[in-house]
Structure of Beta-phosphoglucomutase:
Amino acid sequence: MNWDPVTAVLFDLDGVLTPTAEVHMRAWEVMFTRVLEQQPTTQEPYTDQDYFAYIDGKPRYEGVQDFLDARGIDLPTGEPTDPPELMTVCGLGNRKNEIFNEVLAEEGIAPYPGSLRLLDALEQRGIAMAVVSSSKNAPSVLATAGIADRFPVVVDGSVAAREQLPGKPAPDTFLYAARRLDRDPSGCVVVEDAVSGVRAGAAGGFARVVGVDRGAGHGTLLEAGADEVVSDLADLI
């Protein structure tokens, strides 16, 4: 890839820089399996396909709502302050977050080796970098992975809520990160592994959208608007 005209790279976190998508997937599976078991009628088991279809890349409560809608389960929305044991959309989202943090604390996390190589190469070129994640856990994940100091700008779920930015597939969080870096979107590259994130990048007028296939599918990411798809970020060096 020709990096000469690129002024900044805006990275998603989970599944792009760190394999936290695996931790998220396990947390969602545990949480939704328990929810489905509590339903009065028999439900099809939760699968990884549910994660990619309804949850991947979206703000947590939106992912909960979209999955429940797909299964015909009607729950009250609730409030973000709902305790994790409450059967509301927000309560379930908070329950999933609790499970995620337990797994992260127990197992830790490390960056993908290929992603670390790309970060090193971009740093040597003086290209600015930011993280744009729907997760409110992004700062703790970056710190646990030992790469927090590489990103002067982190736009996570908490920032999006504070600034009232719509989540992916809207491009607003990526555009906000570009502004925080003082870079024009036309010089920025978006790197994403989720369909919703690729769509956000494609809608934002960025120089290029790179899809990282960690399970969503090469063709699916291209169809969503990726200019190219790689399986490892080291392929971009």
